[in-house]
Amino acid sequence: MEDNPYQGTLHGGQPAETRTPGWRPNLLGCLAVIGIVGVLIALLLPMRRSARPAAHRMQCANNLKQIGIALHTYADEYGALPPAFTVDADGKPLHSWRTLILPMMEQQPLYEKIDLSKPWDDPANKVAFDSSVPAYSCPSATSTQNETTYMAVAVPGGCFRPTEPRKFSEITDDHNWTLMVMEVDAKQAVHWMSPTDSLDLAFLDQKSGANLSHYRGVHADFVTGQVRYLSTGLKPETLRALITIDGKDNPAAKGAD
To answer: How many folded domains does the chain comprise?
Structure first.
C-alpha cells in the first residue's frame, strides 16, 4: 500500500497525527474574526453607555408629559387644578396632589386602596405607601423607588395653591411660559404620597453642587402640558417670569429655552 505523504512516524514505529494542508491559514482566519468581533464590541460599548442617559431623559420627559395630561384631565373633571395638598379639619396635611390625580394616571386600583380621610403615612394607607408609581420616578434619579423628584410649583405667586384649587383662568401669563410641575435635584426628593413639594430653586445655580438626574438641566411641565428642558444657570429674572402666573412678563424675551 502506498505511503501517505502527510503521515509521519513517531518513535516506536507509531504513525504520527495526520494534518490537513492549510490548517495554519484557517487558524489565522479565526484569529482575525475574533479580533474584528473584539473591535466591534469595543466600539459598541461607548454607544450603549451614551444611549442610556438619552433614553432615561426621554422617559423622564414622557413621565412629566403624562403628569401634565393627568392634571388637565383632573381640571376638566373638577373645574380646577388640585390643591398642592389636602388637609383635615385641623389644617394638618393629609395627601399630595400626586395622590389626587392617580385615577388620571391609570392608577385607579391603587387610588381606591387609599383612605383620603387619614394621613398619607397612616398605617391604614400602608399598601399604597409601599407601592411605587413608575411615572412618578425619573429612571436616572438616585432617590429610592418610592420617592419622586417631580414637584408642583407651589410657591408664592406660583401655579399651585397650598390647600385650595386653582382655575386655569386665574393664570393670566402666557400658558406656554408658565411652570406647572418640574424636576428637582435628588436632595429634595420625597415619597410620592407626601404632601410636600420641596421646591428650593437654588439647585438651578450651576455652582450649587446639586445632584441632578440629567446633564446640567431638568425637565419642566408648563401649563399647556408641554415639556421643556431647563438648563442650569437660568437668569433669576427669567426664572421668576417662568414661575409667576400673573407677572405680565415674557420669559421668551428673557432667554428661556
So the answer is: 1
Q: Provide the grid cell at 35.
A: 479580533
pLDDT in tens, 135-178: 998 887 776 789 999 999 999 999 999 999 999 999 999 999 99
Q: Which domain holds residue 110?
A: 53-254
Are 246 and 172 spatial neighbours (Cβ–Cβ below 8 Å)? yes
- In-domain check, residue 37: no
Span 43-75, pLDDT tens digits: 544 544 445 767 877 888 999 999 999 999 999
Whether 36 is in a domain gets the answer no
Q: What span, in angstroms and rounded, lies between the C-alpha atoms of 155 and 162?
A: 8
pTM, full prediction? 0.75
Residue type, 23: W
Scored b (16 or more CB within 10 A) or e, 26-54 reads eeeeeeeeeeeeeeeeeeeeeeeeeeeee
Asked if the structure places residue 139 within a domain, the reply is yes
Give a three-class secondary structure readout of 189-225. Answer: CEECCCCCCCCCHHHHCCCCCCCCCECCEEEEEECCC
Query: 22 in a domain, yes or no?
Result: no
Q: How far apart (Å, rounded) are the C-alpha atoms in residues 86 and 97?
A: 8
Q: Three-class SS string for 45-66?
A: HHHHHHHHHHHHHHHHHHHHHH
